[in-house]
Specification:
alpha/beta, binds nicotinamide-adenine-dinucleotide, binds uridine-5'-diphosphate-4-deoxy-4-fluoro-alpha-D-galactose
Amino acid sequence: MRILLAGGAGYIGSHTALALLRAGHEVTVIDNFVNSSPEAIRRIENLAGKQVSLIRGDVRKKTDLLPVLKNGGFDGAVHFAGLKSVGESLQKPILYYRNNIDTTLTLLECMEETHLSSIIFSSSATVYGSNNPVPYREDMPRGLCTNPYGTTKSMMEQIFHDAAAANPELSVVLLRYFNPIGADSSGRIGEDPQGIPNNLMPYIAQVAVGRREKLTVFGGDYPTPDGTCQRDYIHVSDLAQGHLKALEYAVSHTGCEIFNLGTGTPYSVLETVRTFEQVSGVKIPYVIGDRREGDLPACWADASKAEKILDWKAERTLEDMCRDAWNWQKNNPMGYETLHKS
Ligand code: NAD
Ligand code: UFG
């Protein structure tokens, strides 16, 4: 297949690009590098021994995107292009609504004009909101999100539903990611956050490599077995495989389908810290701090629908996730080194 990855230079996009190349597909990436580096693409090409067609462009701009679709001869597209920081979205809501909604609308318009009919969308477990019971199933209603980032995901899901309802040729797969962590086992590509990491695993990895002094565990008094929050961590390479299965599904179906991509097993913050310490042999100093506003005590997937319909199941363990995150971080202590660092 020939696949367009919008935002394909980022963390999940780069691992998906590598998985697609390794499976023999052709990959085009369009990215404006607002949160990524072209170096990731260079490394993917090196690892796969194949070329990626790379376009520096803004997915919001039809003048950037339409020529790519017109000339691409694509079988499908994956829409990763978005801003993803929960905290930043509270500070800069307009930026988040503008970027995330506009990329989606422009992509759908350009797809319609060029008769490209299969699209995979990077959604998030955050759309379940705070009132659904765990584990989350795809047939539960979307809930109210506590931040503009989450609301953009929910709004974009609605846009895709409406677009698919109006166009019987369109095939949309909404993938609700749980907590992607880890890196390709080569240690050549991985997660490279700008500034102070918001997310747990990159923070732990930066403590391990000496870039941060200690981890603050956000809350130790949750109604969970050890008092810290539980999440469904999923290896980014398993997640990437999920996109391959979703693309195969999308090109042979129409309509709009939702799939959770998680392992179905929750781990607490402290279990994750201990596992990282075991596989890396590095002690992670931490303190228990206040709860972070908006955090849910527990969040995990019922992952059975993707297994049944897509024939996809996460294979890698929490040990694998921590080992690969550490392998990436220790080999690239400053990430790709082309982005602004604090
Ligand atoms: P990322 O920031 O590493 O990748 C997003 C990519 O999109 C970046 O390369 C960025 O430069 C690009 N981009 C953003 N706006 C763009 C624009 N207007 N035009 C062109 N390129 C643009 O993030 P990621 O972790 O790889 O996430 C990919 C997608 O998955 C995002 O939509 C994110 O919201 C979603 N998601 C991520 C997680 C997670 O924990 N990482 C969880 C759930 C959902
Ligand atoms: N945590 C800490 N200390 C830190 C960072 C995180 O204790 O320095 C804790 C959080 O409180 C939470 C857990 O680690 O309990 C995981 O936090 P992350 O920030 O890594 O992930 P979240 O579950 O908060 O959110 C992630 C993505 C969102 C996405 C959501 C569901 O960041 O974009 O998963 O997919 F919406």
